[in-house]
Specification:
- The complex is a heterodimer.
- By secondary structure, chain A is mainly α.
- Helices cover about 70% and strands about 0% of the residues of chain A.
- Chain A has a two-stranded antiparallel ribbon.
- Chain B has a single domain, classed as Helix Hairpins.
- Chain B is mostly helical.
- Chain B is built from three helices and no strands.
- In chain B, helix 1 packs antiparallel against helix 2 and helix 2 runs antiparallel to helix 3.
- Classes of the chains: A mainly alpha, B mainly alpha.
- Chains A and B meet through helix 25 of A and helix 1 of B.
- Chain B: It is an enzyme of class 7 (translocase).
């Protein structure tokens, strides 16, 4: 069964090749069928692999499932890197998320992108398939090098997709920003891999994790920190998060794919995969937890004041990723992976729902110009509400269980972590329902023309919404904790891959209390938000703190002032002074000198025979003297040297 | 008669030729000066030839060593005659066109 694993990334790769190469010949339905079909095929194989994992005998702690080697990738005497795929509980779960949600997003895209010209339609699906292929490679890779290939692949695809409408300068700039910021993080990842190679001599997961005792404390600390730099870039954590909101420039389904199923979850996956290393580096864990917590709170405050429907969701993703890092930092790896899963459900749902709204509003994204869409877009409205409830952590929706698991683990670590986490949860509920209330409740505030054309989206868009809504509602069932009369299926399933979970022991009564508090805060925030925004949306300009929040704490401006502008200035100096007067000066100077010298030499060519002969005669006389006095000159020269 | 006399005479002739070529503008005079230089060289060739031939002859009556120089004189004369025939043709053509044999007049060819 495991030897079928190569099929999973193969299908999207084939889809990419076919759609990419024949995008001009194929018709739109054919492109859609190929693009979606590739994902569906991968999904079927993934389900088979997953089922296989469910029934696989649990491996004893400290041993790792064997990898299926496709070919030898780098082979230099004793140093070998195999092109190997590792299928275990963790990767098979991610496979399901990526291919399953990816498939729904593909189906949705066939309708959302329908107005594009055929050529761009094909290009779009080719990129999407390549994106999924890269992510699958990242997740399936049996060592850090293969993971890095996928890692770079998703970076490239995000660049291509964010800048999909490349004729718009702003969109291309957003793509470049995402690309550059990711490269900064990738440097950290790459250094970590080289460090591992230098110290352990191998990058295979199984060998690295069993030979981890060879590493000193400093090595582990440095490697994990560098890996985290990579994760922070990919998963948009402070200080490398500003690319993610700008990534909204791409088509909406792409946002859904980036934010929910691929790309940004790569960092979580990488750290969960390296849990053995991280558990041995408490210092790094603290940093991960603090950065995650800070990002969660920071992004949530920004989300409160955003007016672009997709930007709110983008900052919400940054915030939720912060939660996941908090979970990783306090050693609750399962909790983090669980939150990745539930988040993938409801965030994909919310983005696709937002896409449906934008579709209906003829590409209007400002929520201040919406309102009252509840009656016109019934399916979108209902599914969106489910997503909002799930992300706000209202029981028994899926987000409640995963978020609560992380919060409980944070509490066991430090009550302060928990406090900030709960405040963030309250903010999350608030801004999600601000978004919901402003968009769907109240009265319509758009133009008359828009109101006339309001319509529910076609089936290809609503059916994925419905499926995702169902998943968002019931998805938490796999991780119902024991104190709520469940047994944590996900925990026992992942125990093979995540071997170093830090147990958190808190009293049952405390745990009930914690749950109660977080649910109460979320519920209050929802009530307040619905009350406040359903009738009278904020149309006036924000002032004071609100203005600062609306401008995202001016972080982009600070980055511009501190990093971007000095670099541009330096480039200006290099270009105008070093390049133009320095290097160009030398090059042109040589040319000008030759030109000048030849003009002077031309004066000798007077055409006067007499002067020519005079020169000849004088030269002969000089030569004559030279040869006459040869010995004297030679002696003279010898004396000098 | 010592060889130095011949050398001195040849040098004088040669210098007169050079100075003539340098200072005169009339193409025909320049030609004559060139002939003068050639003849200075011829004189030297004959003189050296005679000197060595005489030395060799005293040694061995059948020897022909040293007459090469005299042969060269004939070659030079032939070449000089050829040169003059070409040069005179050029000068005649030049005179026909510009009614002058001033060589400096020709420097307008440089443009």
């Amino acid at each position: 069964m495991t030897n079928l694993v190569f099929l999973v990334p193969l299908f999207p790769l084939l889809g990419f090749l076919i759609n990419g190469l024949f995008r001009k010949q194929l018709s739109k339905p054919a492109i859609g069928v190929i693009g979606c079909g590739a994902l569906l095929a991968s999904f079927v194989v993934s389900v088979m692999l997953f089922a296989n994992q469910l029934h696989a005998p649990k491996l004893a702690s400290g041993t790792y499932p064997s990898t299926s080697v496709l070919f030898s990738f780098i082979n230099i005497s004793s140093f070998k890197i195999q092109f190997a795929f590792l299928v275990d509980a963790l990767s098979s779960l991610f496979l399901l998320i990526i291919t399953g949600i990816g498939f729904l997003i593909h189906v949705y895209s066939t309708s959302y992108m329908h107005d594009e010209p055929t050529e761009h339609y094909g290009r779009y699906f080719a990129y999407l398939n390549l994106f999924v292929f890269s992510m699958l490679l990242l997740v399936l890779g049996g060592n850090y090098v293969i993971m890095f290939i996928g890692w770079e692949g998703v970076g490239l695809c995000s660049y291509l997709l964010i800048g999909f409408w490349f004729k718009n300068n702003n969109y291309s700039n957003a793509a470049k920003k995402a690309f550059v910021m990711n490269r900064i993080g990738d440097l950290g990842f790459l250094l970590a891999v080289f460090w591992l190679l230098a110290k352990v001599g191998t990058v295979e997961y199984s060998e690295v994790f069993t030979r981890v005792s060879q590493l000193s404390k400093v090595d582990i600390g440095a490697i994990t920190l560098l890996l985290f730099v990579g994760a922070a870039g990919k998963s948009a954590q402070i200080p490398l998060y500003t690319w993610l909101p700008d990534a909204m420039a791409g088509p909406t389904p792409v946002s859904a794919l980036i934010h929910a199923a691929t790309m940004v979850t790569a960092g979580i996956y990488m750290i969960a995969r390296s849990n053995v290393l991280y558990s041995l580096a408490p210092c790094t864990q603290h940093i991960v937890a603090i950065i995650g917590l800070a990002t969660a709170l920071f992004a949530a405050t920004i989300a409160i004041k955003q007016n672009d429907i997709k930007k709110v969701l983008a900052y919400s993703t940054v915030s939720q990723l912060g939660y996941m890092f908090l979970g990783l930092g306090v050693g609750a790896y399962t909790g983090a992976v669980f939150h990745v899963m539930t988040h993938a459900f409801f965030k994909a749902l919310l983005f696709l729902g937002a896409g449906s709204v934008i579709h209906a509003m003829h590409h209007e994204q400002d929520i201040r110009k919406m309102g009252g869409l509840r009656k016109k877009l019934r399916v979108t409205h209902f599914t969106f509400l489910m997503g909002c409830l799930a992300i706000s952590g209202i029981p028994p929706f899926s987000g409640f269980f995963s978020k609560d698991e992380i919060l409980a683990a944070a509490y066991a670590h430090s009550p302060i972590y928990w406090g900030i986490g709960v405040v963030t949860a309250g903010l999350t509920a608030f801004y999600m329902f601000r978004l919901y209330a402003t968009t769907f409740l109240g009265t319509f505030r758009g133009t008359h023309d828009q109101e006339h054309h309001l319509h529910e989206s076609p089936k290809a868009m609503t059916i994925p919404l419905i499926i995702l809504a169902i998943l968002s509602v019931i998805g938490g069932a796999v991780g119902v904790p024991e104190i709520l009369w469940g047994d944590h299926h996900l925990h026992s399933f992942l125990s093979g891959s995540i071997t170093t979970e830090q147990a958190h022991h808190i009293e049952h009564s405390t745990e009930y209390l914690l749950m109660g508090v977080s649910v109460a805060i979320a519920a209050l925030a929802i009530l307040f938000a619905v009350n406040r925004f359903s009738k009278k949306p904020e149309l006036e300009e924000a002032t004071g703190l609100g203005k600062v929040l609306q401008n995202k704490w001016y972080v982009d401006e600070i980055y511009d002032a501190v990093i971007v502008n000095p670099l541009l200035k330096l480039a200006d100096v290099l270009k105008n002074i070093i390049e133009k007067s320095g290097i160009d000066g030398i090059v042109n100077g040589v040319g000008r000198f030759v030109h000048y010298a030849s003009r002077q030499l031309r004066l000798l060519q007077s055409g006067l025979v007499g002067s020519y002969i005079l020169v000849i005669v004088l030269s002969i006389v000089v030569l004559f003297l030279v040869f006459w006095n040869q010995t004297i000159i030679l002696q003279f020269v010898q004396k000098i040297f | 008669m010592p060889i130095q006399y011949y050398i001195t005479l040849a040098a004088c002739l040669f210098c007169i030729g050079i100075v003539g070529v340098l200072v005169r503008r009339n193409a025909i005079i320049i030609f004559m000066c060139i002939e003068l230089m050639l003849n200075a060289v011829n004189l030297l060739l004959v003189a050296f030839s005679k000197m060595y031939h005489g030395a060799a002859f005293a040694h061995d009556a059948t020897s022909t060593t040293g007459i090469d120089g005299q042969l060269f004189v004939f070659f030079i004369m032939v070449v000089a005659a050829a040169e003059v025939s070409v040069g005179l043709a050029v000068i005649v053509m030049m005179y026909r066109n510009v009614h002058s044999v001033d060589v400096n007049f020709l420097n307008r060819l440089k443009n």
